[in-house]
Design goal:
By secondary structure, the chain is mostly helical. The chain has one domain (2-96). It is built from four helices and no strands. The chain has helices at residues 2-11, 21-40, 45-64, 71-97. Helix 1 (2-11) packs antiparallel against helix 2 (21-40). The radius of gyration is 16 Å and the shape is elongated. The chain crosses the membrane at residues 12-37, 49-68, 74-93. Keywords: Membrane, Transmembrane, Transmembrane helix.
């Protein structure tokens, strides 16, 4: 789902007037890369943290970016940023509670 949000963010400037093209394309590509990174690692705590930071950056871009006057662009930044943070928190929680128990490298044999 995070990859989809990254693709949406990277392409949203095409249909949202006043959207910051360079900022959203850059953040969208970074979200896609970090989401793929998180999906391909066994225990992706660092990747999920990077995704959280990117989500916060997307959220705050509405406040500090040049698109504050455009309500649709601002709401898009808030919704995509909040969704990225929520998805990263859920995935990070699942990494700690579920997937790490099945990781054979974390077992300590005595």
């Amino acid at each position: 789902m995070s990859v989809g949000l990254g693709i949406y963010l990277a392409l949203a400037h095409l249909w949202i007037p006043g959207a910051p093209t360079a900022l959203w394309v850059t953040l969208g590509v970074l979200v896609i890369v970090s989401s793929l990174w998180a999906g391909t690692t066994a225990s992706s705590t660092l990747a999920e943290f990077v995704k959280m930071v990117l989500g916060v950056m997307v959220f705050l871009s509405a406040l500090f970016g040049a698109h504050v006057e455009e309500r649709t662009a601002m709401l898009t930044s808030w919704m995509v940023g909040a969704a990225l943070v929520i998805l990263a928190v859920i995935a990070s929680y699942r990494n700690r509670s579920g997937r790490s128990a099945t990781n054979p490298h974390e077992y300590q044999y005595a």
